[in-house]
Amino acid sequence: MTLTICQWTPGSHERTVIGMTFVDLQQDWASGVAARLSADGFARVDKIRTRAQLVTLGSSLGRIVPHRDSDTDGVTTLEDRGGFGNRIGFEGFGTGKLTPHTDRSGVMEPPALLMVCCGQKASTGGECLATDGLAVYLDLAMNDPQALDALSQPRTALFGGAAGYLGSIFESGKSGRIRVRYRTDDLVKYSPEITRYLSVLAAAIKRHTITFALETGEGYVLHNHRWMHGRTAFVGNRVMHRLSLDPHPEFAIPSGFAPDVPAVMPG
Fold it and tell me: CATH homologous superfamily for 2-251?
Protein backbone atom coordinates (compact mmCIF):
# COMPACT_ATOMS: atom_id res chain seq x y z
CA MET A 1 0.00 0.00 0.00
CA THR A 2 1.26 3.48 -0.78
CA LEU A 3 0.22 6.94 0.28
CA THR A 4 1.11 9.36 -2.49
CA ILE A 5 2.24 12.83 -1.43
CA CYS A 6 1.60 15.43 -4.12
CA GLN A 7 2.17 19.12 -4.65
CA TRP A 8 -0.35 21.06 -6.70
CA THR A 9 0.75 24.02 -8.80
CA PRO A 10 -1.24 27.10 -7.70
CA GLY A 11 -3.58 28.34 -10.39
CA SER A 12 -3.49 25.10 -12.36
CA HIS A 13 -4.75 21.56 -12.16
CA GLU A 14 -1.29 20.03 -12.44
CA ARG A 15 0.23 17.97 -9.65
CA THR A 16 3.73 16.76 -9.03
CA VAL A 17 4.44 13.63 -7.03
CA ILE A 18 6.99 14.64 -4.42
CA GLY A 19 7.08 11.43 -2.43
CA MET A 20 5.52 8.09 -1.75
CA THR A 21 5.22 6.63 1.70
CA PHE A 22 5.22 2.84 1.66
CA VAL A 23 3.25 1.28 4.50
CA ASP A 24 2.61 -2.32 5.42
CA LEU A 25 0.27 -2.05 8.37
CA GLN A 26 -3.27 -0.73 8.36
CA GLN A 27 -2.53 1.48 11.36
CA ASP A 28 0.47 3.03 9.62
CA TRP A 29 -1.69 3.69 6.58
CA ALA A 30 -4.40 5.28 8.68
CA SER A 31 -1.87 7.40 10.61
CA GLY A 32 -0.40 8.70 7.36
CA VAL A 33 -3.80 9.59 5.94
CA ALA A 34 -4.89 11.17 9.23
CA ALA A 35 -1.78 13.39 9.19
CA ARG A 36 -2.68 14.69 5.73
CA LEU A 37 -6.30 15.24 6.76
CA SER A 38 -5.20 17.15 9.85
CA ALA A 39 -2.93 19.32 7.72
CA ASP A 40 -5.24 20.24 4.85
CA GLY A 41 -8.27 17.96 4.89
CA PHE A 42 -7.38 15.94 1.80
CA ALA A 43 -5.29 12.85 1.00
CA ARG A 44 -4.85 10.85 -2.20
CA VAL A 45 -4.47 7.07 -1.88
CA ASP A 46 -3.87 4.22 -4.31
CA LYS A 47 -3.44 0.47 -4.78
CA ILE A 48 -6.77 -0.39 -3.18
CA ARG A 49 -7.34 -3.66 -4.99
CA THR A 50 -10.61 -4.96 -3.55
CA ARG A 51 -13.78 -3.76 -1.91
CA ALA A 52 -12.87 -5.72 1.22
CA GLN A 53 -9.54 -3.90 1.38
CA LEU A 54 -11.37 -0.57 1.10
CA VAL A 55 -13.54 -1.51 4.08
CA THR A 56 -10.55 -2.73 6.11
CA LEU A 57 -8.55 0.43 5.47
CA GLY A 58 -11.53 2.67 6.07
CA SER A 59 -12.22 0.92 9.37
CA SER A 60 -8.64 1.56 10.46
CA LEU A 61 -9.17 5.28 9.91
CA GLY A 62 -12.62 5.67 11.41
CA ARG A 63 -16.00 4.26 12.26
CA ILE A 64 -18.01 3.46 9.14
CA VAL A 65 -21.22 5.50 9.04
CA PRO A 66 -24.07 3.75 7.19
CA HIS A 67 -25.57 5.67 4.28
CA ARG A 68 -29.08 5.49 2.89
CA ASP A 69 -27.64 3.88 -0.25
CA SER A 70 -24.90 1.73 1.28
CA ASP A 71 -24.77 -2.05 1.48
CA THR A 72 -24.36 -3.95 4.75
CA ASP A 73 -20.58 -3.34 4.72
CA GLY A 74 -21.15 0.42 4.56
CA VAL A 75 -19.98 0.77 0.96
CA THR A 76 -22.08 2.71 -1.53
CA THR A 77 -21.45 1.71 -5.13
CA LEU A 78 -21.97 4.70 -7.42
CA GLU A 79 -22.70 3.63 -10.98
CA ASP A 80 -25.14 4.38 -13.77
CA ARG A 81 -28.58 3.00 -12.87
CA GLY A 82 -30.47 4.56 -15.74
CA GLY A 83 -33.62 6.47 -14.87
CA PHE A 84 -33.05 5.93 -11.14
CA GLY A 85 -30.38 8.61 -11.34
CA ASN A 86 -32.95 11.18 -12.46
CA ARG A 87 -34.68 11.15 -9.06
CA ILE A 88 -34.05 14.03 -6.69
CA GLY A 89 -31.28 13.10 -4.30
CA PHE A 90 -30.13 10.13 -6.38
CA GLU A 91 -28.17 11.97 -9.08
CA GLY A 92 -25.01 10.11 -8.08
CA PHE A 93 -26.48 7.07 -9.83
CA GLY A 94 -26.73 8.87 -13.16
CA THR A 95 -24.10 9.99 -15.67
CA GLY A 96 -24.49 13.75 -15.41
CA LYS A 97 -22.21 16.32 -13.83
CA LEU A 98 -22.38 16.69 -10.06
CA THR A 99 -21.49 20.19 -8.92
CA PRO A 100 -19.24 20.37 -5.86
CA HIS A 101 -21.20 19.72 -2.67
CA THR A 102 -20.85 18.30 0.81
CA ASP A 103 -22.36 14.97 1.79
CA ARG A 104 -25.35 14.47 4.12
CA SER A 105 -25.95 18.20 4.54
CA GLY A 106 -29.49 17.53 5.76
CA VAL A 107 -28.48 15.91 9.05
CA MET A 108 -27.27 17.71 12.16
CA GLU A 109 -23.89 15.95 12.22
CA PRO A 110 -22.78 14.92 8.71
CA PRO A 111 -20.09 12.22 8.62
CA ALA A 112 -16.68 13.83 8.90
CA LEU A 113 -14.77 11.88 6.26
CA LEU A 114 -15.52 10.67 2.77
CA MET A 115 -13.40 7.90 1.28
CA VAL A 116 -13.76 7.20 -2.44
CA CYS A 117 -12.06 4.54 -4.56
CA CYS A 118 -12.31 3.93 -8.30
CA GLY A 119 -13.61 0.48 -9.20
CA GLN A 120 -13.72 1.20 -12.92
CA LYS A 121 -13.04 4.42 -14.82
CA ALA A 122 -15.45 5.78 -17.42
CA SER A 123 -14.85 5.50 -21.14
CA THR A 124 -14.80 9.29 -21.30
CA GLY A 125 -15.29 11.94 -18.63
CA GLY A 126 -16.10 11.18 -15.03
CA GLU A 127 -13.19 13.16 -13.58
CA CYS A 128 -13.36 14.02 -9.90
CA LEU A 129 -13.96 17.56 -8.69
CA ALA A 130 -12.73 18.80 -5.31
CA THR A 131 -13.01 22.26 -3.76
CA ASP A 132 -11.38 23.45 -0.56
CA GLY A 133 -13.98 25.35 1.47
CA LEU A 134 -11.19 27.27 3.20
CA ALA A 135 -9.93 28.61 -0.13
CA VAL A 136 -13.46 29.70 -1.02
CA TYR A 137 -13.93 31.30 2.40
CA LEU A 138 -10.69 33.29 2.14
CA ASP A 139 -11.53 34.32 -1.43
CA LEU A 140 -14.85 35.77 -0.29
CA ALA A 141 -13.29 37.38 2.79
CA MET A 142 -10.91 39.27 0.51
CA ASN A 143 -13.14 40.01 -2.47
CA ASP A 144 -16.71 40.17 -1.15
CA PRO A 145 -16.91 40.26 2.67
CA GLN A 146 -20.57 41.26 2.50
CA ALA A 147 -21.37 38.03 0.68
CA LEU A 148 -19.34 36.01 3.18
CA ASP A 149 -21.16 37.62 6.09
CA ALA A 150 -24.55 36.82 4.55
CA LEU A 151 -23.59 33.25 3.75
CA SER A 152 -22.46 32.77 7.36
CA GLN A 153 -25.72 33.89 8.98
CA PRO A 154 -27.63 31.18 10.87
CA ARG A 155 -31.01 29.90 9.68
CA THR A 156 -30.46 30.96 6.07
CA ALA A 157 -30.38 27.50 4.44
CA LEU A 158 -32.71 24.54 4.88
CA PHE A 159 -30.88 21.38 3.83
CA GLY A 160 -32.64 18.09 3.11
CA GLY A 161 -36.26 19.17 2.96
CA ALA A 162 -38.81 20.09 5.64
CA ALA A 163 -37.43 17.56 8.13
CA GLY A 164 -33.82 18.48 7.37
CA TYR A 165 -31.30 20.84 8.94
CA LEU A 166 -31.72 24.60 9.18
CA GLY A 167 -28.31 26.27 9.21
CA SER A 168 -25.91 28.15 6.98
CA ILE A 169 -23.34 27.48 4.28
CA PHE A 170 -20.46 28.62 6.49
CA GLU A 171 -21.20 27.61 10.06
CA SER A 172 -19.10 28.67 13.04
CA GLY A 173 -18.61 26.15 15.84
CA LYS A 174 -17.84 26.67 19.52
CA SER A 175 -14.12 26.32 18.85
CA GLY A 176 -14.24 29.09 16.25
CA ARG A 177 -13.61 26.66 13.41
CA ILE A 178 -15.79 26.93 10.32
CA ARG A 179 -17.74 24.04 8.80
CA VAL A 180 -19.15 24.02 5.27
CA ARG A 181 -22.55 22.74 4.12
CA TYR A 182 -23.45 23.16 0.49
CA ARG A 183 -25.58 21.66 -2.24
CA THR A 184 -27.34 23.01 -5.32
CA ASP A 185 -30.10 20.48 -6.02
CA ASP A 186 -33.78 20.58 -5.07
CA LEU A 187 -33.03 19.35 -1.54
CA VAL A 188 -31.98 22.79 -0.32
CA LYS A 189 -33.85 26.05 0.10
CA TYR A 190 -31.88 29.26 0.55
CA SER A 191 -33.43 32.31 2.20
CA PRO A 192 -34.11 35.44 0.12
CA GLU A 193 -31.45 37.25 2.17
CA ILE A 194 -28.66 35.17 0.65
CA THR A 195 -30.06 34.21 -2.76
CA ARG A 196 -28.38 37.16 -4.49
CA TYR A 197 -24.99 36.01 -3.18
CA LEU A 198 -25.24 32.44 -4.48
CA SER A 199 -23.78 33.39 -7.88
CA VAL A 200 -20.83 35.03 -6.13
CA LEU A 201 -20.30 31.86 -4.12
CA ALA A 202 -20.60 29.65 -7.22
CA ALA A 203 -17.96 31.74 -9.00
CA ALA A 204 -15.57 31.43 -6.05
CA ILE A 205 -16.15 27.67 -5.92
CA LYS A 206 -15.38 27.42 -9.64
CA ARG A 207 -12.13 29.35 -9.16
CA HIS A 208 -10.92 26.89 -6.53
CA THR A 209 -12.19 23.61 -7.96
CA ILE A 210 -9.56 21.02 -8.88
CA THR A 211 -10.27 18.43 -11.56
CA PHE A 212 -8.43 15.10 -11.54
CA ALA A 213 -8.90 11.59 -12.88
CA LEU A 214 -8.70 8.33 -10.96
CA GLU A 215 -7.45 5.05 -12.33
CA THR A 216 -8.80 1.76 -11.00
CA GLY A 217 -7.61 1.29 -7.42
CA GLU A 218 -6.89 4.99 -6.88
CA GLY A 219 -8.91 7.13 -4.54
CA TYR A 220 -9.00 9.93 -2.03
CA VAL A 221 -10.11 10.77 1.48
CA LEU A 222 -11.43 14.24 2.27
CA HIS A 223 -12.86 16.04 5.26
CA ASN A 224 -16.54 16.49 4.50
CA HIS A 225 -16.82 19.49 6.85
CA ARG A 226 -14.23 21.39 4.78
CA TRP A 227 -14.06 20.03 1.24
CA MET A 228 -16.75 19.86 -1.43
CA HIS A 229 -16.64 17.15 -4.07
CA GLY A 230 -18.32 16.33 -7.36
CA ARG A 231 -17.62 14.90 -10.81
CA THR A 232 -17.84 15.71 -14.49
CA ALA A 233 -20.38 14.02 -16.76
CA PHE A 234 -19.29 10.70 -18.21
CA VAL A 235 -19.92 7.97 -20.76
CA GLY A 236 -19.34 4.29 -19.99
CA ASN A 237 -19.45 1.96 -17.01
CA ARG A 238 -17.92 4.18 -14.34
CA VAL A 239 -17.92 2.57 -10.87
CA MET A 240 -16.92 4.34 -7.65
CA HIS A 241 -16.99 2.89 -4.15
CA ARG A 242 -17.67 5.28 -1.28
CA LEU A 243 -17.41 5.07 2.50
CA SER A 244 -18.61 7.61 5.05
CA LEU A 245 -16.48 7.70 8.20
CA ASP A 246 -16.11 9.41 11.54
CA PRO A 247 -12.40 9.35 12.46
CA HIS A 248 -11.18 7.39 15.46
CA PRO A 249 -10.54 9.77 18.40
CA GLU A 250 -6.85 8.89 18.61
CA PHE A 251 -6.19 10.65 15.31
CA ALA A 252 -7.59 13.97 16.58
CA ILE A 253 -8.48 15.19 13.08
CA PRO A 254 -10.03 18.66 13.55
CA SER A 255 -13.40 19.43 11.99
CA GLY A 256 -13.72 22.14 9.37
CA PHE A 257 -11.03 24.81 9.24
CA ALA A 258 -9.65 27.76 11.18
CA PRO A 259 -10.59 30.90 9.23
CA ASP A 260 -7.21 32.57 9.75
CA VAL A 261 -4.87 29.98 8.21
CA PRO A 262 -3.72 29.91 4.57
CA ALA A 263 -5.42 27.56 2.15
CA VAL A 264 -3.31 24.86 0.53
CA MET A 265 -3.63 22.61 -2.50
CA PRO A 266 -4.27 18.97 -1.61
CA GLY A 267 -1.44 16.54 -1.06
Answer: Clavaminate synthase-like (3.60.130.10)
